[in-house]
Give the backbone structure.
Amino acid sequence: MSQRRSKFEDKVAEILEREGFRADYEPHKYEYFKTVPSGHCTDCGSNKVKQSRWYTPDFYLKDYGIYLETKGRWTATDRAKMRLVLDQHPNDLGNGQLVMLFQRNNPIKKGQRYGDYCDKFGIPWIVIGNLEEWLHERSN
């Protein structure tokens, strides 16, 4: 397993291992395209320029075909990226195949939290305190 990037990811890995769930860390990459603001193509003159980017989900639960994306802090940039990735890869990451795993259900703005945002856009989510229960629901 490659080096994890945060203590939160370490904690998730420990829970997965302790609970007997086989998980690979960052095993797959997905290319997605993001519009470049004020972009200009010198070849064709178009102002609709897209840049290729890569998204790597954190954990893959092999036996369940589910990715867990861990987030302590989930910025507006992160949220926009996640929507692009999910929109561009519905067969690989949509339909509950990618689940956001938050340290806390933090507020985004007055009256809206991470979970509310996920619910609005149909993104499954859980908080770390519910991870063990969520895992056992998958295994039953």
Q: What stands out?
A: Residues 7-139 form a domain with the Trna Endonuclease; Chain: A, domain 1 fold (CATH 3.40.1350). Strands lie at 23-25, 30-35, 50-55, 59-61, 66-71, 98-102, 107-109, 112-113, 125-127.
